[in-house]
Amino acid sequence: MEPGTRLVFITGASSGIGQALAARYIAAGWRVALVARRVADMRQWAMAQGWPATQWAVYEADVRQEATVAAAAQACLQSQGLPDVVVANAGISVGVDLSLAEDLAVLRDLMDTNVIGLAATFQPFIEPMKRRGHGILVGVASVAAIRGMPGHAGYCAAKAAVVQMCETLRGELRGHGIRVVTLAPGYIDTPMTRANTYPMPFLMKAEDFADQAFSAIEHGVRWRVIPWQMGVVTTLLRWMPRWLFDAIAGSQQHRKKQRRT
Q1: What's the mean pLDDT when you consider all of the chain?
Q2: What is the pLDDT of residue 191?
Q3: Where are the domains of the chain?
Q4: How many CB atoms lie within 10 A of CB 2?
Q5: Pairing of strands 7-11, 56-60
Q6: Cα 94 to the chain's mean position, in Å?
Q7: What percent of the chain has pLDDT above 70?
Q8: d(C-alpha 3, C-alpha 122), whole Å
């Protein structure tokens, strides 16, 4: 396929990982469909990059509202065509205390954004990709999906659901030429993580993450933890005996945070 003809559709594109991925795809000669709640900010940022007007477009959507995602997808199909890659990146990290009744609403928001939002992002493109016979769906999960961490019951559960949903889709769509890639970022330097007051091992620049994510998507890998050092950590966590994990997790301070990517 000639440079400049390939198209990527990215949600949560107005900051952090989404913005870095958009810039990486543009640098590789792709066209980009940028989906964000803050459309004016997104357009201002894109124009400041000096990108050719024919290489990008911005669509407004809140992934918690499926109708807005569907409208953005249809607008993309009509004006730019069917994407080759769809990246469901929009998400939030919110601490949850399940002893508090009011945090049930927080939990619902987490699930609506991270899980239903991912499904709503993929849904409009699955049948068209099937008919075309190829495409890549990318779910941005987290290393938090591996084990449940104190203070983050909702976020860990939501990102674990992302991993399982992508795995399910991978099996369902394999015979249709559609690949499903699951990315599990560790600590990435974004507006979301800059407010953290605790140590963040192997902190990575968003641009470096985007480089590695771009390569993983291009190769259609099934699962990739970025950076690799966090991959080692997640492997250890995955196989750690429950009694040992419970002892370590139980000693951790209960932290509550609220950040939207």
Answers
A1: 90
A2: 65
A3: 7-260
A4: 6
A5: unpaired
A6: 15
A7: 90
A8: 24
Q: Which residue numbers are catalytic?
A: 155
Rounded Cα distance, 87 and 108, in Å:
22
pLDDT tens profile 193-239: 666 656 677 788 999 999 999 999 999 999 999 999 988 988 888 88
The dihedral formed by the CA atoms of 214, 218, 224 and 227, expressed in degrees to the nearest 10: -30
Residues contacting residue 134 through CB under 8 Å, at least 6 positions apart:
84, 177, 178
Read off the pLDDT of residues 18-30 as tens digits, 9 standing for 90 and up. Answer: 999 999 999 999 9
188 and 175 in contact (C-beta within 8 Å)?
Answer: no
The answer to which of 80-89, 124-133, 181-190 has the lowest mean pLDDT is: 181-190
Cα three-residue angle 134-137-140, rounded to 5 degrees: 165
The CATH homologous superfamily for domain 7-260 is: NAD(P)-binding Rossmann-like Domain (3.40.50.720)
Say how far apart CA 91 and CA 88 lie, in whole Å: 9
